[in-house]
## 1
Amino acid sequence: MTAVQHDSAGSGTQPVDVSDPRLSRFEIVKEGARRDEIEIVTYEPQFPPNSKAERRIVRSISLLFLISGAAALAFLGFYIWWPWKFELGNTLSDYYTPVLGVSLGISLLALGYAILAWAKKLLPHEVSIQQRHDGASKTDEQLITGQTMLFVADELGVQRRPLLKGAVGFGLGTLGLVAAAPLIGGLIENPHKGPEQMMDHTGFDPVPNGNQPVRLTREDGTPIRPEDVSVGGQMTVFPGIPGGATNEYADSPTLLIHLRADDADKARVASDADKVNSGAMWGAYVAYSKICTHAGCPASLYEQQTNRLLCPCHQSQFNILDNAQPIFGPATRRLPMLHIEVDPEGFFVAKSDYKDKIGPDFWERP
Amino acid sequence: MKRRKLDLAEAPATLAKGVDERFQAATPLRALLNKVFPDHWSFLLGEIALFSFIILLLTGVFLTLFFDPSMKEVIYSGAYPALRGTEMSTAYESSLRLSFEVRGGLFMRQMHHWAALLFVASIVVHMARVFFTGAFRKPREANWAIGVTLFLLGFLAGFTGYSLPDDGLSGTGLRIASAIMLSIPVVGTWLSASVFGGEFPGHLIIGRFYILHVLLIPGGLLALITIHLGLVFKQKHTQWPGPMRTNHNVVGERMFPRYAMKQGGFFMAVFGVVALMAGLFQINPIWLFGPYLASEVSSASQPDWYVMFMDGLVRLMPNWQIYIPIGHGYSIPPLFWPAVVGLGALTTVPMFYPFIEARRLKDKQIHNLLQRPRDNPERVGIGAMAFSFFVIATLSGGNDVIADKFHISLNAMTWAGRIGLLTVPPLAYYLAVRMCLGLQQHDREVLAHGVETGIIRRLPSGQFIEVHQPLGPVDDHGHPIPIEYGGWVVPKKMNRVGALAPAVKGFFFPVEKPSEAPVSPGMPPVTAAPKHEELTSGR
């Protein structure tokens, strides 16, 4: 602590002997402030002691504290006795959270205002000036510390002992890798290997299904007949395999759309002209992946009149009459089409898995 | 030997002596009690962030007692009838239990969410204050960088927290996060597979986000907040220029008791406001969204407000994909630019702003006095540019809702955002710089000629002039001697210098006090009394 030395001209007051019994407490406080290089410029009570104004403010502050306590008590009462268990319909339990919030809020706000009023209205106003000390340390201090550090480095002698340098680097560096290895090694997953090759397959792949074409099913697993989807209607369908509608097959949700006859003709012309999508439609039915090629949200808003699919996350729009090409928004790639047909029992099946990759784009996908 | 009686009156002094013998606490404790803090309302914005963080820790600990971060599927059979029989993850089920079957659980959850929104909001406003007043200049560059990092950590804490309940919205957010990871060139698929432990969504992500959200990120926040405050303490707070204030002192009040009490009261007030909001305003009603299903999303799926700017940038990005025809062929999806490059740049470039500005201005001085924004027009222009960019990006993050509510075409909203994002920031820059220069000029005018009195005099020649009240001394001809600009408020109205009768204010009784110019307590900006005879004489 070198504070005493900086008795700058600005602070003005002289040191006093604090053991002097004639000193008032405030004079001792001022001496303390002087030692911390603080000059108390003004220190004014806001009103004469025991004045009417003071008594009024004391009363207001006390009232605020009392309100705070009363509201806290109310909170406890509500917390314990208010019917809190959720019931359907318009019941008292709907108001449990609001009454807790209001009572706690009033209690805390009253407490806050009480403390603020105490500080702002009752305590004396003061202006104090404290000196700053910024900028660098003294040059000799800088020099000593610098030399000390260099001395330490010299003593270690890493510079002089090249063998040690290499050995230390090797030892510590390799040990550092050991620290990183379990984290990286444990977390890392190869997206292109593994049992299901995540990027390439969906639940509609017939191979894991014993080479049987996979049915299109509703969320509850029931298969779908063509007449289940009305003209101009759409349905979200899932692969008809165990767990096909769960998040295990997050890439598989598909939109089955029953187009109007003239629209279907347009869609067929467009899809048959395409190498990959040729022959994918069945009658007036077309099935597109529901997973947006932009960021993977379900592109689920189907506008029947304009035959557009809109993704509600980032507003990419796809034209379902033209191979679901993107026509607006940030998506670059069309929605993949599922090749569908109807099996002998009259239910929709996927002829094969998707021929394009599902979902958002990535580096390896040309 | 007689045992000494315990002297209760002496006990505190004895205890204090005992403590000091062991820890030598007297000097540092006095220095702490005496430490002088400057006071200004804008210095309290960062406090709101600190207080919300404390509220977050308190309510967050409560939530962990009931939340189960597991993705195991269960069938819901709880108190909320609409979801009974639905298959959902344990994380979502326990969030519902927390909301419906834990006494006061919903209140705590809403308090946590509101405090989180307030936390990030106050960080942003605090950063704006620090930026526009130049508080980040030497020697405080490091603390500015720590502040920017705190914003980024707050953003991540918010996103991980948003994902934990595993409801419809959080799952959609995670899916987009996965797409963002996938968009990174070369390592994208590896990164996404590693983070999610295989194909999206997998079974691990909630558990991983949970440990990030309750341990690693708050730990980082706590450590950085400690350093942030420690540096404020060590380097002492900046202050506005004003009477008595120099670059080498701090004018204000000592920390104890008044300053510390005001802080405590303010904390309680912030806490109270959060409690009121948590009680009265519903936030994130997860039971309405249902469990996450890859096939389901509702329209108007918006993230928390501080993520909306990124969502907006993603929406506005045109579908420009870069194809690299090497070998099998590679591509960089358009998502990469706003979400990875954009977020990265927006959070790292500002860190270096103090150094960039110092280099441009060749400024190596230490600055403890704040600058009024108008005194550095370029900085204000850059700030206005950043702010308008942020606002347009954020509005675009909800452009579907705007389109729906105001019956505007959605595509028109997107185009307006695209064009606005490029044209409005330069315009904002220009306007802000012009405004600053205008304000500067007006300050100088008043200092040179005095305050406009609104009194028009007709000279014998027939000429009309307005009488000005000089702010300082006048020379032999009665012309004011120009006053040097002091970097602080220049009084521009006669009642600011106490000349006019106070306007009647107040509803029940007039407040019979002239309004004061905002200066340091107890010090009026100009001490010279107004000279009334100047106004009346026809000398």
## 2
Amino acid sequence: MIDVKLKKNFGAFDVDVEFSSESAGITVLAGPSGSGKTTIINMISGLLTPDEGHIFIKDRLLFDSGKKINCPVEQRRCGYIFQEGRLFPHMNVRRNLLYGRHSDRSRLKETITLLGIEHLLERMPTKLSGGEKQRVAIGRALLMRPQILLMDEPLASLDQERREELMTYIDRLPEQFGIPVFYVTHSTHEILRLSDKLIRVDKGRVESSGSPGGEYHGLGSSDGNGEYISVFDCKMKAFDNEFGIVSAEFHGGVIRILANTPPGEPEIRVAVKASDVTISLDKPENISTTNIFKGTIRNLEETGGHSVLVHSDIGASLAAQVSKASAVRLGLKPGKKVYLLVKVVSMIY
Amino acid sequence: MKTIMSKNFYAKIKWIILACAATFLSIGAIYAQGQGKIYIYAAASTTDVVKEIIESYKHANKSSVEFVTVFGSSGDLAKQIEAGADANIFISADTKWVKYLEEKKFVEAGTSGIFASNDLVIVASPMAKSKLKSPEKLFEALGDSNLAMGDTKSVPAGKYGKEALEYHKAWEKISGANKIAYYPDVRKTLNAVETSQCDYGIVYKTDAMMSSKVKIVYTFKAKSHSPIDYPACVVNGKNNDEVKAFMKFLKAGKAKQILKKYGFAVK
Amino acid sequence: MNLTGEELNAIGLSIKVGIWSVAAGLIPAIWLAHLLARSRFRGKALVDALIHLPLVLPPVVTGYLLIITLGRYTPLGSLLQRMGIKFAFNWKGAVIASLVMSLPLMVRAIRISIEAVDRGLEDAARTLGAGRLRIFMTITLPLSVPGIISGAILGFARSLGEFGATVTFVANIPGETQTLPLALYSYTQTPGGEMMAARLCAVSIAIAVAALVVSEIFAKRAAGRMNQ
């Protein structure tokens, strides 16, 4: 879908990245502020020209410094949703929606219904709420029939409730409209919720690139303290109404989550904080924890302080945070077979 | 304690400085007046000749008096004098403006008199094609060009020009065909002919002589227009010995020589 | 107030010349303002300076420059005359003089307005597939309308007061080039003409105030449309 190599030097700061994503869903580009994410997405859209590199979107070559190809912005067919929405203030919602070149009027009704903005058509942008503005912005980009949707922290200026609401819409976009999404953010929650593929950048360089279901180091808490989270993509198997338990299958076996209602979709993503995982050498009996997995220690990772992260293979990768003293006491080392007890599991919709 | 003192202190200092400055400036102004500067307000068409006459006067009388000259249109100057401008002597290009000031009692009795007069001429631009024999042939000579003249209402040269053309029975034809370009002063009239915007123009002889680009092709006879007289007068209350001496010099032989050199006619 | 024929001529001519110089100058002014606001090119400073020249030169000098570029015997002037475009000593010449004097004011007002248009909006339009011309016509221009209106009014007002360049270039010909300021000046140069001058002064003020009121109405409508 997207294949880029980008280099740009700003003097004090430079960007040098290379990544690709075959996902037809949502590819998330994540990183802290100042990591170069907006620079990268601007280069992909054409609003910024790289010093060197190439850009492929769905096998179309949009930029190649070597071959001196630089497709102008207006021909790139990349829909762009900006953080501030950028609706045209002198046009009502309808005119904004239909502004795109080759905008597909026949899809107008369908699009506005799916985005829930049918009742807003005659309104002026100044009279829209933040969430409504972004939905109109999304609609406007979609109606131009782009090959890809670029989103630069679209939820940043919204409050918590609106964010949740909008994430639901965004999550369904690839499926409902058949368009891949390239999404820039620094929010853990958005990453966990939306990404089908995750590319992490920092200081202008790619740090990791992979599918979720692996580990998301440093994503845990909002203070960026580096809480280690293990993320699993599971398939729901059963829902116990009486006790409010969701049973889901994943590579590591079956995991049980407490929930009031079953999730709407069978595919659910699950997150486990390393600090919520305990290690036992013996199989625990008569214990309240239900999520117990058998696994083999892969390696121990120093995190500074008096704790250590124990990475184990339970069929999938699970990390546990253990004090150094306990690690020594139990003799934890690679290859050792252990039991991992998961106390808290969060479900991400 | 210190802060309060600074605020008031600096405010007071500011006022003291301003008061001193005002005092010194007014003293200076009065002092300068008292030093005996002579202010001459003169019509623009007399600029060069008046300057030379002043030089000649200072040389002849070995005077160190400072002359301040203000040149402009006679009408503007008269109005400024009426509004209280510091003029000692008023030299006009038209007697009507001196009459204007006389009516308003701004002229010292007995000081006004004609010291020079001028001729009216037709000039041709460098690009003017036809030769002009007489004003009667002016209309044909113009072709598709306009005739440059001063405003007949407000520029003396314009008024005289109209009289002269009427005398030669050429006015109706030329003005009727809308072929006259009126300018608010003689400088602009001359400029129009110099740049060939107009092929012909009517100006004073003295103006024509100052320009190397235009050619005098006809001089109107004195009887075809009102006399173009230049009166000079002393502003009421602004007379003194020096002023009297200059006014006398203005009508004397040396000044007459200079006037003639520039093309003015003297008695 | 009973106005004489000549006074009415002067008023009519002033309004005619004012409207024509804005009408003829507005599009070049918008183009130049956009050029200066959005483009980068070599010689931009020079273009900027040239446009501002009539603002800083004495108007008579500007009139003189008009004579040496568009005068009867200049290459450009004679070419235009041969083509049948005549403006020597008629109202069209007055329009040219007014236009040249008002252009810098119009360009300045419009440029400020264009610069205030959020470039982010123009970028958004680009991502939606709009080319430069479409962006200008649908985004930049509509959002600059208040500046364009104020530029037009400034241009009209400047034209109403235009004297030096006009009288140098096309003289003071009643019915053809005698606009209000020229007529007013003539009266001040005539003894006893103060009354007439005062009347024309009152008329000039009335026209200027009317123009301001009209511009306010337009500006409010433009702003209102955005905040429906």
